[in-house]
User: Which sequence fits this backbone?
């Protein structure tokens, strides 16, 4: 029996730039007691959809019907909706830090929820219920922790508190909007387990929104795939995984690095999401679809229902085929790599003739870290020891992955190696020179050989400078090139990373996240450095874009032989790019070794936990799915 | 910024066209181009929709024209600003004549043409207002950037100086200075500048402190850029909006400073006409009791000028603010009659999430937007800055 019936819902958001058609003609039913997933990349309209349904988006123009408990939520009065939210519909948001009020104890916040909706409950009863609920979500000593403030809980614990708060009134349905995205992998799993467990125990229906298809695979019963405001495919999770009916679902599965076991190139979905200001003619995915035919671009596809419960919006009747992965590296990249090799050979000859260039010792490791300690606010009461004795050697041509959870010190370590932060004690040798003894001029010289690519594609590019100037900056600073020579080199770099060189004069704001990350990479390549440090380069990007960037990073190393230090919290990504892995926990290296060895036979308990959390069970194919037939076809 | 159709590049990202921040023209055609507006164009477009700002701008343009063409005005009326027309400007009893054919705004107690004097007074007011405000901003930028960027003892010294300037009682000090060094337009400018930079300086310092921690500054540092290069190329361009807004809003207070000084007889030296001086003369001997136009016209111009600059400054701040999209939404809703502005933020957040292009534009501004899209980690300059700004500005 379905508890929530959403029929033909469209959401338009009026903005200064025009009307954003955030959701278009979405229909789905959620059955009582099931876990229903909504998956999509950023901008797919998944959050807008649920917020519009729960009446949390007063500015939007919403059409269609959403019947919950006999009431059409889209026509309900604000008062009706308010009494339903919390009471019958529970909500869990992404950021556990900002969804709890920092000035009140968690206990009083839960009690308030109870007493708002059930004013007759006495304070003591409410407290008892809150404590019971906290215990159920796995908070130990709940009666003691009842009076604690949100900052006294860790991220995962806070999210548990949020779950307790959402469940305390025993709502019939819970809407969880990316509840684990802000958490570390190991914590993620625990929180999901709690949510699943509670759903089973209390019979609560869960609607879970996520950008991560594989995460839903182990968690949800059924799921809906959204793209650019459109519903593309919906059905049992096992069917979505084993026999995706829509090319986009297939593309998503193929572009996530988890699917591949080796360092094979990923098959990204080419292109990027269209602007939502337009209503597309034909299929919204057609411009990026490897199976698109002429018809797809002209007429909207029909919505077909298959016998195993899958509905799909696609013209193609046969199963979709994956895009051909571009097997080899771009010719332009290879050509540049050959040119560079020749230049270096020439430079070596010149060096043999007496003029020796820096660094003196070409055979020394690129970076050598010995017993490195770093303490913030050293000597004061606020002192925090971030790095506790790190030893690390980075040889020429290595690609080393630094893996760890947030706050473990991996970014700090990278900053120290790059010479941006001074170490408290220990030795950091960069290209045979001790970081602590370099002079100002040498430090500047050193910059030519070490470059960083930052995590945040928005924050790491100055919004007020043109792209040409951003990429050319290192060359201008270090070699004092200017004019046409600089421009030529910058355009060459842009082509190298897959940007259109004619966009030389644009501002970063005109590029998408993936393109901005390419700009960041081009800037790092500008000086042809020995060592490139990537600080979570893809964690801010969507899955399909992430694959494009990972391929680029890998191609560049294959062609040019750069040395990489690759920081990531995501084991799948690291496995894809790196040949060696270093696992860091609380400022200490707990395990290191070749990538395959670490993945096949992890030694340290922390590594094991990390691996266990990142591997997700994919539901097996059912008989129904294997022999499915077309049931009906509704023309859009 | 012209059109922004992204051509198919060697790989990836750009297969579908339609790039950019996307200020859309309202053509319904599906294949339309979404055009990228430069910051200037976008600001002007927003400003144009703000009626109050446009009226204010209109008045300022009018005032500037009046100041520039003051001699022309003088030749039309046939009256020199300093010339005393005792025969026609004063009645037989020696009282000034009111507004009429000969003297449009009336004559003052010495028989001078009030209109012509106001036009010439506008020159002084604008000169002092604009020049002082710009010089004040220049000092503010220098001190604010140095204090914010270098921190440590530099910040301590400069911030204490700022505090010191803010604590000095303005009029008392101004009067003392002028009485020691003598009144002149240069002295007047100096005093006004000296007292006008402190608040702006603090705001800029706070903003630089935020900018300094941004990743692009660290990126520049990791490339080996010098401090000077970072300040000039990375920090200053991101301060443009603040500087424009604070300079515009500083103009009226400078004009009022000047008028106050002149009113007290310590500013512009007679017979050079200045609005403050004219008001002061009108107050002398209570002549305004019989000739109210002597207070009315200079007072009106002073009021209109300060009001216009303030409104324009407000409008500019709104127009330059990348969060303006959010505001538009809220306004529209109010028109429709639906209340509850409570959830405006999630709306904006969702819009940001709704479209990669738009996200690119708003990411700088909406912390919620970034945390709700999976593209997390985007911290926010402008919102953080503006919060700091309020703190500091108070």
Assistant:
């Amino acid at each position: 029996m379905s508890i929530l019936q959403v029929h033909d819902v469209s959401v338009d958001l009026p903005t200064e730039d025009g009307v954003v058609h955030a959701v278009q003609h979405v229909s789905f039913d959620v059955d009582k007691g099931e876990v229903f997933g909504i998956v999509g990349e950023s901008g797919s309209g998944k959050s807008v959809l649920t917020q519009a349904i729960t009446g949390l988006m007063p500015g939007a123009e919403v059409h269609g019907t959403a019947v919950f408990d006999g009431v059409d939520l889209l026509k309900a009065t604000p008062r009706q909706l308010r009494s339903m939210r919390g009471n019958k519909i529970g909500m869990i948001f992404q950021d556990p830090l900002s969804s709890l009020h920092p000035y009140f104890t968690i206990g009083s916040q839960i009690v308030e929820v109870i007493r708002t909706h059930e004013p007759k409950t006495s304070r003591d009863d409410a407290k008892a219920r809150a404590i019971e609920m906290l215990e159920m979500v796995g908070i130990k000593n709940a009666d003691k922790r009842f009076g604690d403030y949100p900052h006294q809980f860790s991220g995962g614990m806070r999210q548990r508190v949020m779950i307790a708060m959402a469940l305390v009134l025993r709502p019939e349905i819970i809407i969880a909007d990316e509840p684990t995205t802000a958490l570390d992998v190991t914590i993620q799993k625990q929180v999901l387990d709690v949510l699943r467990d509670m759903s089973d125990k209390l019979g609560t229906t869960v609607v879970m929104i996520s950008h991560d298809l594989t995460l839903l695979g182990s968690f949800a019963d059924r799921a809906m795939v959204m793209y650019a405001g459109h519903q593309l495919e919906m059905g049992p999770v096992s069917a979505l995984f084993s026999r995706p009916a829509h090319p986009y679902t297939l593309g998503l599965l193929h572009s996530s690095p988890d699917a591949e076991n080796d360092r094979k190139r990923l098959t990204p979905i080419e292109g990027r999401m269209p602007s939502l200001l337009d209503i597309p003619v034909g299929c919204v995915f057609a411009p990026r679809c490897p199976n698109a035919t002429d018809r797809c671009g002209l007429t909207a596809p029909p919505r077909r229902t298959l016998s195993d419960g899958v509905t799909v919006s696609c013209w193609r009747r046969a199963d979709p085929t994956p895009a051909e992965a571009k097997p080899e590296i771009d010719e332009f990249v290879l050509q540049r790599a050959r040119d560079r090799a020749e230049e270096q050979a020439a430079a070596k000859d010149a060096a043999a003739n007496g003029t020796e260039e820096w660094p003196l010792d070409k055979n020394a490791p690129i970076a050598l870290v010995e017993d490195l300690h770093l303490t913030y606010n050293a000597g004061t009461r606020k002192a925090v020891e971030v790095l506790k004795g790190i030893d690390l050697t980075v040889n020429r041509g290595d690609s080393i992955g630094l893996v760890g959870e947030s706050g473990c010190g991996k970014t700090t370590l990278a900053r120290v190696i790059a010479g941006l932060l001074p170490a408290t004690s220990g030795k950091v040798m960069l290209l045979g020179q001790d970081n602590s003894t370099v002079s100002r001029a040498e430090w500047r010289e050193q910059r030519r050989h070490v470059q960083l690519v930052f995590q945040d594609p928005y924050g790491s590019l100055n919004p007020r400078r043109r792209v040409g100037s951003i990429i050319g900056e290192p060359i201008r600073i270090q070699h004092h090139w200017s004019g046409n020579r600089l421009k030529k080199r910058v355009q060459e770099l842009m082509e190298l990373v897959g940007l259109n060189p004619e966009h030389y004069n644009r501002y970063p704001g005109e590029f998408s996240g993936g393109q901005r990350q390419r700009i960041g990479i081009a800037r790092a390549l500008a000086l042809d450095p020995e060592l490139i440090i990537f600080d979570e380069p893809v964690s801010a990007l969507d899955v399909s874009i992430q694959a494009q960037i990972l391929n680029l990073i890998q191609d560049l190393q294959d062609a040019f032989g750069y040395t990489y230090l690759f920081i990531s919290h995501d084991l799948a990504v690291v496995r894809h790019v790196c040949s060696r892995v270093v696992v860091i926990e609380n400022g200490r290296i707990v395990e290191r070794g070749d990538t395959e060895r670490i993945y096949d036979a992890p030694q340290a308990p922390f590594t094991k936990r990390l691996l266990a959390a990142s591997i997700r069970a994919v539901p097996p194919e059912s008989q129904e799915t294997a022999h499915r037939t077309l049931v009906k076809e509704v023309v859009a | 910024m012209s059109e922004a159709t992204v051509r198919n590049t060697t790989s990836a990202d750009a297969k579908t066209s339609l790039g950019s921040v996307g200020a859309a023209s309202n053509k319904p055609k599906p294949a339309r181009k979404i055009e990228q507006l430069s910051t200037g164009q976008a600001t002007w477009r927003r400003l144009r929709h703000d009626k109050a700002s446009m009226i204010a701008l209109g008045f300022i343009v009018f005032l500037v024209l009046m100041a520039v063409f003051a001699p022309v005005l003088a030749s039309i009326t046939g009256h020199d600003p300093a010339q005393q027309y005792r025969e026609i400007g004063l009645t037989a009893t020696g009282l000034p004549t009111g507004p009429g054919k000969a003297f449009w705004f009336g004559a003052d107690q010495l028989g001078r043409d009030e209109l012509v004097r106001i036009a010439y007074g506008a020159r002084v007011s604008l000169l002092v207002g604009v020049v002082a405000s710009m010089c004040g901003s220049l000092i503010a930028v220098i001190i604010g950037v140095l204090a914010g960027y270098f921190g440590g003892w530099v910040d301590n010294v400069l911030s204490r100086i700022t505090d010191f300037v803010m604590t000095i009682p303005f009029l008392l000090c101004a009067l003392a200075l002028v009485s020691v060094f003598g009144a002149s337009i240069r002295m007047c400018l100096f005093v006004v500048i000296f007292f006008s930079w402190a608040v702006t300086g603090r705001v800029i310092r706070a903003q630089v402190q935020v900018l300094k921690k941004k990743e692009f500054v660290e990126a520049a540092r990791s490339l080996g850029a010098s401090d000077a290069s970072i300040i000039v190329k990375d920090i200053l361009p991101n301060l443009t909006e603040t500087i424009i807004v604070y300079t515009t809003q500083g103009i009226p207070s400078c004009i009022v400073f000047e008028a106050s000084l002149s009113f007290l007889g310590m500013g512009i030296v007679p017979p050079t006409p200045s609005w403050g001086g004219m008001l002061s003369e009108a107050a002398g001997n209570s002549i305004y009791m019989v000739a109210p136009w002597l207070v009315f016209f200079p007072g009106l111009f002073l009021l209109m000028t300060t009001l216009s600059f303030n409104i324009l400054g407000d409008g500019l701040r709104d127009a330059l603010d990348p969060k303006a999209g959010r505001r538009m939404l809220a306004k529209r809703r109010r028109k429709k009659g639906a209340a509850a502005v409570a959830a405006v933020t999630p709306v904006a957040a969702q819009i940001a999430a709704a479209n990669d292009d738009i996200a690119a534009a708003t990411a700088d501004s909406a912390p919620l937007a970034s945390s709700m899209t999976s593209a997390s980690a985007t911290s926010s300059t402008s919102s953080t800055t503006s919060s700091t700004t309020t703190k500091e500005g108070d």
